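Following up on my earlier thread - several people asked me to post the actual chain instead of describing it. Fair enough. Here it is, all 409 residues.
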Amino acid sequence: MIEFYGKNINNVYLDNAASTIPFQKVKDVADEFLFTYGSLHRGSGINSEKSTNAYEKARETILSILDGTEDDCVIFTSNTTDAINKFALIYPFKENDVVLTSDIEHTSNYLPWLKHAKVQLLETENFKINVEKVEEALIKNPDIKIITLTQASNITGYITDIPSIYKICRKYNVLLFVDASQYAPHHKPSLKYCDFIAYSGHKMYAPYGAGVLAGNKKVLSNDGLSLTGGGNVLYIDSNGKPYYKDVPYMHEAGTPNGLGAVTMACSHEILFREIGEERLAKHNQKLLNAIKEVGNMLMKEGYEVFFHNEEINRTPILVIRNTKRSNAETVKLLNTPINNLTRNVFCREGAFCSYRIFEKLFPELKNEKPVINDKINPKYSLIRLSGGLTTTEEDIYYAYEKLKAINRL
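Reply from S.P.:
Thanks for posting it. Predicted structure:
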């Protein structure tokens, strides 16, 4: 049985697409690491040696689980956003280089590229990335050097056919960068099907502040515009020229997050070695079955429901809009006792940093001001209930009962 640190029976955890509570074993590993806490890479004491060894073992564990080879490496980052920004700073872009991404991406997989290259948006079809359209884009524009795509959307939950897209990328000698932030908590990420991958620990039952950028060592050996200073250099000459350490250390400026690395490695081992892909897939399917049934019932209670009915591989996300009261008020009431429904239902309301999805879903928004008085227009709002290993089918049905009660008040 998998145990979670801090799990409270009074709460229903349906905000897993944003952050997850930690595994108990992750908390135990954190305590063990802190008990012999020492300077990473630079200290001479026994605690420093233990901390450094644990940090490097974490790197090896994650690279192994990612199916990495001797041509790959793992760089520890703060989160997915940091990892994508870091890669955009590392890559040696030339003047006319183009990055191809899609119109369903999180802003973290869009904005960083705009600062360094021309960005071309691939228009999705029914919120899905069409593999054939990817190849068409490459044929039409030979300046595309990188394709960067989400492996699972943070709103629709749809899972992209990354293996097929990677075959196309290799055919045209284009690099594939994958944002696996939403995918990795549910399915094992792998460097077999991409050149680079990024994701976060806080969505994988580990603490905030740790993420992974992994991929081809040769490309990552560019110093580029990557953050610098502290422990990533061997020497700086009198003219200010730095002599960098080898990759991955050259991109881990300052004192690295050892605690984040060891806890994230622990979560990888639990997810993909202890639980395993087969059990994860079965759990996801149970939640998806419940989401489909609950979604259909919610439509009879004054809710619009999106993406839940299509038979397609997706992560366990239920996205709704209340037509009887505001979404903001609805999520507040989900955390307020209503009759005998006293458990809090944790979820999220808002735009989820994916504004193009909203404008595709609700075309009328294009006639609205997106920002009003320094706040996003409240019409850019949906409610997202997202399942994970903390979630049971019963939790999905409980959320339904509370949502139904809210609209019957």
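The CA atoms of residues 269 and 286 lie 23 Å apart. That should answer part of your original question.
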